[in-house]
Amino acid sequence: MKRNLLFFSALLLCLSQGYSQDPLSLKEKKSAGFLHFEFGAHYPSGSVKESIPVRQNISSYYVDQLNGGQVSSDITGWTAAVKYSYFFDQSDVAFSAGLRYTGYSGEVYGYTSPGADFFYLRYSMDDSNTRFARVKEMSESHHFISIPLEARYYPFQYQRMRWFVSAGAELGLFSFLDETDISFREDFMEEYQDEILAQLAVDSESFYSTAYIGLGVEFISQKDYTFVLEAILPSLFLSENNFSFSEVDSYSGFRFSIGFPLHKKQ
Amino acid sequence: MKSNSIFYLLIFLPLLFSSCEKMEDYSLSQTVFIEDPYYPGLPVYSEWGYNTFGAYIDRKPFYSTEYDLPVKVIVNSDTLRIYFRGIMGGSEVELKISAKGYSPADHYEMISLDQEIIDLTQSGREAILKIGNETTVLDIIEGELIFNRVQRLYVDEELSRTIVSGYFHLKTFLYGEPVAISYGRFDFGIGYENFYNY
């Protein structure tokens, strides 16, 4: 929430500096290249993986239970990118490519009954014995570098604002700093963490790819700087198994970017 | 005055935490009924100790509820008795299956039943069905009680209870006509509160 407020505050500040009353006339609209610095947030939707043996992982079932226990997963992401875009004035289309960093942080949390602050994770099951651990939270973080390829179409312009629809895809180059952690109810269970994670076999795929569509608005200053606010509509993960504890197939979000003109076609 | 407050706090706090400790394992004795999508009205077969059972008596679901203790295991001399207690069509129903030759001393020793199949037609076996206030000793045509998996449960490396999971089915006579108790399944956590040996 704080991150979102920071983004919108930065947007308002830039708008107050860059937005001018002078309309951008058709004569001034020229094909031009821009360098964009972009920041954003992702909100993936998903559920706890079926392969993670959590007792009472019942979010996808209709269940009768007196206690009302449940287990949920929650993932948020943030992005930063540098992109080059070129705007074609004759077709009102822009294409861009660049380099993007995306970081994700996820948690699996829940309770076995109201008043309890843990759920049961089964980490061992052999012929005669089954072992549960009381777990407060399972967390993970993943970081990706990818190449975004995007196209924007600007169907409508008013004064120095123009609206656009966008479509794009990003192809992952590599991932780094993949981490998983289990927070146990009892401190002494920490010594079993490595063994438990090994038993769960919670590896995630390093190849990351998504496809997305968006709607946005671009504000153009008198000096041709652009301030872009874009809403990412529910979009797809093209790659699979990017997360250790959660099954995720879609996400939405928003992005904010500042563009600096590099050259203009005369 | 201040020393009195500290005194009462020292008395109260351990009681508070000890009651929380009991509540934590109490949740393992509660019922988690996940309906089987292929057998409506019956719980899905599981091996989590969800404290459920279900079967069709002809086409009527007979199943455990979250309000009543769904199972009691009673060992008396050399006879094992398992009481399945639930509802069918709004009536309280209890199915008791007895088998001679099985006498675990405590619920941990029920591990000896792992992979055991009890043929209910053999001598020393009995099934009694109680629907409402009416009790019937079943004349069994064929039937089995199958302990698919019996496992000791450790929670945070401490022995807690025994999870007993399996299937049951039988054909018998009820009110003068043949009846099938079919697609029976159970998944129980057997512990202090539902195991008796006397």
Structural description of this entry:
The complex is a heterodimer of chains A (266) and B (198). Chain A is mainly beta. Chain A is 9% helix and 61% strand. Chain A has 2 helices and 10 strands. In chain A, strand 6 (129-158) and strand 7 form a beta hairpin. The longest helix of chain A has 17 residues, at 2-18. The two termini of chain A are 44 Å apart. In chain B, 13% of the residues lie in helices and 52% in strands. Chain B contains 1 helix and 13 strands. In chain B, strands 2, 3, 4, 5, 6, 7, 8, 9, 10, 11, 12 and 13 form a 12-stranded mixed β-sheet that branches. The longest helix of chain B is centred in the N-terminal third of the chain and has 25 residues, at 2-26. Mean pLDDT of chain B is 89; it is low at 12-22. At the A-B interface, strand 2, strand 5 and strand 6 of A face helix 1, strand 1 and strand 10 of B. Strand 6 (129-158) of chain A pairs parallel with strand 10 (140-155) of chain B, so a sheet runs across the interface.
Break the fold down into its secondary structure elements and pairings.
The complex is a heterodimer of chains A (266) and B (198).
Chain A: H1 2-18, E1 32-48, E2 63-65, E3 70-88, E4 93-111, E5 119-125, E6 129-158, E7 161-184, H2 193-200, E8 209-220, E9 226-237, E10 246-264
Antiparallel strand pairs in A: 1-3, 1-10, 3-4, 4-6, 5-6, 6-7, 7-8, 8-9, 9-10
Chain B: H1 2-26, E1 32-34, E2 52-57, E3 60-63, E4 71-76, E5 79-88, E6 91-100, E7 117-119, E8 125-131, E9 134-137, E10 140-155, E11 158-174, E12 177-190, E13 195-197
Parallel strand pairs in B: 4-13
Antiparallel strand pairs in B: 2-3, 2-12, 3-5, 4-5, 5-6, 6-8, 7-10, 8-9, 10-11, 11-12
What order do the helices and strands of chain B follow?
HEEEEEEEEEEEEE
The total beta strand count of chain B reads 13
Number of discrete helical segments of chain B? 1
Secondary-structure element pattern of chain A, one letter each: HEEEEEEEHEEE
Percent of residues in beta strands of chain A: over 45%
| Unreliable segments of 5+ consecutive residues of chain B | 12-22
Question: Would you count the extended β strands of chain A for me?
Answer: 10
Characterize the main sheet of chain A: 8 strands, antiparallel, barrel
Unreliable segments of 5+ consecutive residues of chain A: 16-28
Rounded mean pLDDT of chain B is 89
- End-to-end separation of chain B in angstroms reads 52 Å
Oligomer: heterodimer
Classify the secondary structure makeup of chain A into a structural class: mainly beta
| Average of pLDDT of chain A | 85
Distance between the termini of chain A: 44 Å
Gyration radius over CA of chain A: 23 Å
